[in-house]
From TrEMBL, chain A:
InterPro entries: ABC_transptr_periplasmic_BD (IPR002491), Bact_iron-sidero_bind (IPR051313). This is Amino acid ABC transporter substrate-binding protein. It comes from the Bacteria. Keywords: Ion transport, Iron, Iron transport, Signal, Transport. Coiled coil: none annotated. One of its GO terms (cellular component) is outer membrane-bounded periplasmic space. Its main location: other. GO terms for biological process: iron coordination entity transport. Belongs to the bacterial solute-binding protein 8 family. It holds the Pfam family Peripla_BP_2. It comes from Chelatococcus reniformis. Residues 31-291 form the Fe/B12 periplasmic-binding domain. The keyword Ion transport applies. The keyword Methyltransferase does not apply.
From TrEMBL, chain B:
The keyword Zinc-finger does not apply. Belongs to the binding-protein-dependent transport system permease family. FecCD subfamily. InterPro entries: ABC_BtuC-like, ABC_transptr_permease_BtuC. This is Fe3+-hydroxamate ABC transporter permease FhuB. One of its GO terms (molecular function) is transmembrane transporter activity. Keywords: Cell membrane, Membrane, Transmembrane, Transmembrane helix, Transport. Pfam families: FecCD (PF01032). It is found in: Cell membrane. It comes from Chelatococcus reniformis. It is a multi-pass membrane protein. The chain crosses the membrane at residues 59-79, 91-114, 120-138, 145-168, 195-214, 226-246, 252-271, 278-300, 306-330, 351-373, 393-414, 426-446, 452-472, 481-501, 572-600, 612-629, 635-657. The keyword Nucleus does not apply.
């Protein structure tokens, strides 16, 4: 096993255009690795399979779509990417973001690094995600696919807006539960907030939160917005579902009494255009479902 | 001391103070009742909502604050009485951290258990923590500072493990932070009801145990002659205190240091009889937490407290410990004991050191070439080794340098304080480094590795300055130095907890440091650290005489012509600098500073100079090995080196110290 590994590795070092590398070169796509999930989503959505990406076990559970093709090497936790595994995947280009600046000196030893950030203070994430998609399209030599993703996402959100036009209740608050007593909220300047605006819906929180509220908020704050839909972004901690089901306070909230609670499928709150569209689709499907939202009960 | 005697002479003073505090807390609460939060709905619905908010949020929150404060006050008073230790409480004994860690583990391993047996899980964790701390401190007669050191070490370990779990389970990161910081937001009476039941049961148990409890304050011999089943009563009282503290952690998370503050302030107000102290501490604890929570709610905007109540209460812990310091000196029973004698003495320590160094080089060579790749294990050489070297080299160098620094710093600390549990971690320097890192992350938009290193270094230096300034007042006496370190560490940890509770994305970077990842270290950082390690460690053998004499105590050292305060200052400064440098590489905790020196003594390095060098070599080898394990066992996922070292070293240390205790007895 050791010897075989050594031989292939040395052969590859000596002749970079043999074996897999040659296949990739023939296909005309650069070998790209992604540390940030927003870049990973975008790559997959424009039909490029990266050679390596971080934390794939959790990606499959939390981000879900676009689905990962086989053959993408797992680099371990995003907070501690495995440089040796990344080196072994021989990328030509590594996509990083503002969250991983500390890793860049090491990443640059492996391949050129491109820092593409959707979430930057004082910048609207949807526009930043479009710009990143365009950049990734150029880097991955798929500019047409990138433009198609940008236009397709806009069109699809526009179509969903039309579907939601007749809806009576247009106020929503997207939240994520920390425990039965606390949540964080995604404000108007978050990706989810921007998608709501594109869908023609109102964010009931009505203020920016720099992507998601910076401190845990007590559940009692929900009493201030009794008319809005409560849109729950997973994960929901296991005991929270049970505790809320038994909570007098939760049951007494006008939104809960009226069945205006919508629990979404898992979704990446720090994603790019694919995550934005997934959020839009899930919200639209939930709001227009015949029986109303899928509640917590 | 002056303020204590003053307070005792003028009983009106404290009464007035408590009256003012109670009035303030009540006024804050009244303000909340008078100014309910805005609700947007039609008049009828709004009325209904205000009613719900009052009865299901505002009132239960006040009740929970009062009950949790009372439970912690009682737990603290019980622990302080039974351990005869004025700085014992659920925070210093690591009970709250243990309960918290058990809940965290349950969340990711057995979530179903949390739904049905949340309090039992917390109790098991708290009990395990108390058992470990008492076991560690047993051979030192449960001396107050030693108990606090062991508790602090355990709390650090729990926070490192919690950080690693949060990193590996990023999806639950908000939940983990909310628990860790002890927030009092309420929407039901369930936590208050549960706390009330537990407090009543705990109070009843304390009342039943009151006779043995009062006698336990006496020394062991007198208590035994009065017919008290010493061990049984002690354990029963400790179990009651753990149950109270664990139920608070289970219901609202970690609330720091109320259990320390309530009894301390009671006795400062002139309550001297043990029975009255037990009666007064719970209401004082209730008042303190209610007041803290009232102030915290003042800072709230849009339903979110600026910092969680538990973390806010934790901030008083550090200053409080310092204030208690003079009283501790009075309670000191035994002079610092010498560390247990080695089992055998080496006749030729130099040869043994050379052997250790050779073994270290061999291990370095093996860990350098042996590694894992996506397609299996490999022995790297030639081109492959050259290609992997930029990734393996810096982290190995950093691990070895950090291990050497920690080993040597630990040996210095133990010689300096005469306390076998005094690791460099408890100096609080590392937590200071964490606060520096945290500030860098919050102030700069996207800090690079250099900025983060600079911030971490500044934080550590600030902590060193504060600790040494506090310790200078008694000529750097060992107990004061340790306690200053613990106090600074507790304060910095509370700050970090408050920041982590925000669940900000930057929290992940902070977590990676807390867990002790070595893989992000650049070659230049590793080289600088290794150079600094050489410069700091090389002169230490020249200080062999100081190291041999200082453990004999102040009087003996002074009599033998040692400049006691001067030598202590130099050694403390060296240990703090070494700990700070190491924490930049492997995070705030690794236990290498404890394991290294103990192994060195076990191998027979008895004299100060050789022991320091041996501890440094052993520390370097240990961290090299652990770093290798961390990058191979779960490939491509990596286990942080600092955390893995403390998980490997913890149990071994327990075994070592128990063994050391029995052979020296």
């Amino acid at each position: 096993m050791t010897a075989a590994f050594d031989v292939t590795r040395r052969a590859l070092l000596a002749a970079p255009l043999s074996g897999l590398a040659l296949a990739a070169a023939r296909a005309g796509t650069p070998r790209i690795a992604a540390i940030d999930w927003a870049a990973l989503e975008t790559l997959l959505a424009i039909g490029v399979a990266p050679v390596a990406a971080a934390e794939l076990i959790l990606y499959r559970a939390v981000v879900v779509e676009p689905a990962l093709p086989p053959g993408v090497a797992d680099l371990g936790l995003r907070g501690s990417p495995n440089y040796e595994a990344l080196w072994a995947a021989r990328p030509d280009l590594i996509l990083s973001s503002d969250f991983y600046v500390w890793a860049e000196p090491k990443l640059r030893l492996i391949a050129p690094v491109e820092r593409l950030s959707v979430y930057v203070r004082g910048r609207a994430p949807y526009g930043a995600a479009e710009e990143m998609t365009r950049t990734i399209g150029r880097l991955a030599e798929r500019p047409a696919a990138a433009e198609a993703l940008i236009a397709g996402t806009r069109d699809e959100l526009e179509r969903l807006r039309g579907r939601l036009a007749g809806l009576a209740e247009r106020r929503l608050i997207p939240v994520n539960f920390g425990d039965p007593r606390h949540f964080r909220v995604f404000g108007t300047d978050s990706m989810f907030g921007e998608v709501l605006a594109r869908l023609g819906l109102d964010n009931a929180w009505g203020a920016g939160t720099s992507y998601s509220a910076s401190a845990p908020i007590g559940l009692e704050a929900l009493a201030g917005i009794g008319d809005a839909w409560i849109v729950v972004v997973p994960p929901i901690p296991p005991d929270t579902r049970r505790a809320l089901a038994q909570s007098v306070f939760w049951a007494a909230l006008p939104n809960v009494r009226a069945g205006r609670v919508l629990v979404l499928e898992p979704i990446n709150p720090f994603g790019a255009l694919p995550a934005a569209l997934r959020f839009g689709r899930l919200v639209a499907a939930g709001l227009t479902a015949p029986g109303g939202g899928r509640g917590l009960g | 001391m002056a303020e204590l005697t003053l307070a005792a002479r003028r009983p009106a003073g404290p009464a007035l103070l408590w009256g003012v505090l109670a009035t303030t807390a009540a006024a804050l609460f009244a303000a909340r009742l008078a100014l309910p939060p805005a609700v947007s709905a039609d008049a009828a619905t709004a009325d209904g909502l205000r009613h719900i908010l009052l009865w299901h949020s505002t009132l239960p929150r006040a009740a929970t604050a009062l009950l949790a404060g009372a439970a912690l006050g009682l737990a603290g008073a019980l622990l302080q009485r039974v351990l005869r230790n004025p700085i014992a409480d659920p925070s210093t004994l690591g009970i709250a951290s243990g309960a918290q860690l058990a809940l965290t583990l349950a969340l990711v391993l057995a979530p179903a258990a949390l739904g049905v047996a949340r309090e039992a899980v917390a109790f098991a964790g708290g009990l395990a923590a108390a058992a470990i701390v008492l076991c560690l401190a047993w051979s030192r007669g449960l001396a107050p500072v030693t108990v606090a050191i062991a508790g602090m070490t355990l709390a650090l370990m729990a926070s490192a493990l919690g950080a690693a779990i949060a990193l590996a389970h990023g999806e639950y990161v908000l939940s983990l932070f909310v628990w860790g910081a002890g927030s009092l937001h309420q929407q039901s009476w369930a936590p208050a009801r549960s706390l009330a039941l537990n407090l009543a049961a705990g109070g009843l148990a304390a009342a039943l145990l009151s006779r043995p409890l009062l006698l336990l304050g006496l020394d062991d011999a007198s208590a035994r002659s009065l017919g008290v089943g010493l061990l049984t009563s002690r354990l029963a009282v400790i179990a009651v205190a753990v149950w109270l503290a664990a139920s608070v952690t289970a219901e609202v998370g970690i609330i720091g240091f109320i259990g320390l503050a309530a009894p301390a302030l009671a006795s400062a107000s002139g309550v001297t009889s043990p029975r009255r102290l037990l009666l007064v501490a719970p209401p004082l604890g209730a008042l303190l937490l209610w007041l803290t929570d009232g102030l915290v709610q003042m800072t709230a905007s849009r339903g979110s407290d600026a910092i969680p109540t538990g973390a806010a209460a934790g901030l008083i812990g550090g200053p409080l410990l310092l204030w208690l310091l003079p009283r501790l000196a009075l309670g000191e029973r035994a002079p610092p004991q010498l560390a247990p004698h080695p089992i055998r003495r080496l006749t030729r320590p130099r040869h043994a050191l050379a052997g250790l160094a050779a073994a270290g080089l061999a291990i370095a060579a093996i860990t350098l070439v042996l590694g894992r790749a996506p397609d299996g294990w490999s022995l790297a050489h030639g081109d492959l080794l050259a290609a992997l070297l930029p990734f393996r080299g810096p982290r190995m160098l950093a691990a070895a340098a950090a291990g050497a620094l920690l080993g040597a710093a630990g040996a210095l600390m133990q010689r300096l304080t005469g306390n076998p549990l005094a690791g460099p971690e408890v100096l609080g320097v590392n937590a200071g480094a964490g606060v520096g890192l945290c500030a860098t992350l919050m102030l700069l938009a996207a800090p690079g590795p250099e900025a983060m290193m600079a911030g971490t270094t500044l934080g550590a230096l600030a902590a060193i300055a504060v600790i040494l300034a506090i310790a200078a007042r008694t000529g750097f006496g060992p107990e004061r130095l340790l306690l200053a370190g613990i106090a600074v560490g507790a304060f910095c940890l509370a700050l970090l907890t408050a920041v982590l509770a925000s669940g900000d994305r930057n929290a992940f970077t902070l977590l990676a440091w807390m867990a002790g990842s070595t893989d992000r270290i650049t070659l230049s950082q590793a080289l600088v650290t290794a150079g600094a390690a050489l410069v700091l460690i090389a002169p230490l053998p020249l200080l062999g005489r100081w190291l041999d004499l200082l453990p004999l105590g102040t009087a003996a050292s002074h009599g033998l012509g040692l400049p006691v305060a001067g030598s202590r200052f130099v050694l403390a400064l060296a240990a703090a600098l070494m700990a700070a440098l190491a924490s930049l590489m492997v995070g705030p905790l690794s236990l290498v500073g404890l394991v290294g020196p103990h192994l060195a003594r076990l191998l027979g390095f008895a004299r100060g100079g050789p022991q320091v060098v041996a501890a440094a070599l052993i520390g370097a080898v240990l961290l090299l090995g652990v770093d290798w394990l961390g990058r191979t066992i779960a490939f491509p996922y990596q286990i942080p080196t600092g955390l893995l070292a403390s998980l490997v070293g913890g149990p071994y240390l327990l075994w070592l110290l128990r063994r050391g205790g029995s052979t020296s007895a």
